[in-house]
Amino acid sequence: MDGSDHFTDSRLFKVLGGYIGLAGIAIAMIFVAFIILIFIVRIIQYPHLRQQVIDHMTGKSTRSIHTRILKTIVFFLFTAGLFGLTFYSIYKMIYDPPNVLPAIFESNTISPSILFCPSIDSELIFITADYHDSFNGFNDIELFMQRKTSYNLNDGFSIITGNNGRCHFFDGRLTSKPNDSIGGYYHIQFQSINSTSIVIFIGDTHDKMDWTLLIPEGNVFNDVGVEILNDGGILQYTEGRRQVLDGSYTYRSFLTSIIKNAFEVIKVDEQIISIGIIAPKRVIKEVETPSFKLADLFSNIGGYLSIWVIFAFLFGGRRANPFGFVTRFVFIKQDREKLLKELEKMKNDRKSKISTLEREVDNATETNKPSNQDELRNLLARYYVDMDFYEHAIKSFDV
Predict the structure, then answer these.
(1) Is the pTM value of this prediction over 0.70?
(2) 198-242: per-residue pLDDT in tens?
(3) Which ranges of the sequence are coiled-coil (predicted)?
(4) Which value, in Å, is the radius of gyration of the alpha carbons in the chain?
């Protein structure tokens, strides 16, 4: 394997989204580098842009000291949160274990339902059924004869007549085995008339399962395991479970297989057909999760709005609102007093430059700069600033 193939198989390559993700990162880096280059060239080329940057960083604020302090605190809190979220996300990308499927391993403490059907023109006579903690414990003949470790399951059997004839049905919901028993071994005995072949169906314990069909079935997730035993024998099954979204029910699917040459260890009498079923100790359980969550909705909205942030950065936005929530609803009186002081200072100082009108204008506009407060207010209200707080501050003396 060469270096290129090794990289494409690495965790980093998959975490970054493969070639598409790498291409996106490269395009983003080129875009950011291009913006920074333009910014540097322009502030070197035009002195007034340099002054604008300096004024933006060091210029006097029209906000009260209360608002400036709170604004600084909130800025650092948001900045710290951004860095924290970024590092946390990177950490999870590098160190979190992969989540390939929404599946978990679960202890198997639930009995399956089992249907035993005779072959054509034959009949089964039920004798007895037992549950044992394990096959190895059952395989001890003396222990088996004493039945000290077995639990009788006869009460769980009933008769079902369907397309497969008169069958014996074991309902796993009626089992008397201990509720905390994991896995285990089921031993069932029949006497067969005219034939020793038995068809065995292992499926879900659920009211919606139709056991009268030729091949019993239920929900789309209820696969039924099927085996045919001649003269009895031992089979084992594997089980998969799927829990519905609201957790109200878990569907079960089964696969069966026959253990070869295992019948001799359970054969008790030539006239009795003995069937052994080994249950797994663990099953794989899939849990349904929402394909679209509220967090995904917020993420999509945030991603969409970020496109407009880039658009506004490149092409400018609509009128600004310099009077935010804090000014309007928190430090109303203090910011009003600060604004009136700034307006009075601008009125008395004819050489004052209006810092909010930072744009290039043609000669005609230069000769018609606003010379009084009314013209300034009208121009700002039309093109630049949401003037609600301004109008309230200069016309009203109550907060």
Answers:
(1) no
(2) 999 999 888 778 899 998 887 777 889 999 988 888 999 999 988
(3) 329-367
(4) 40
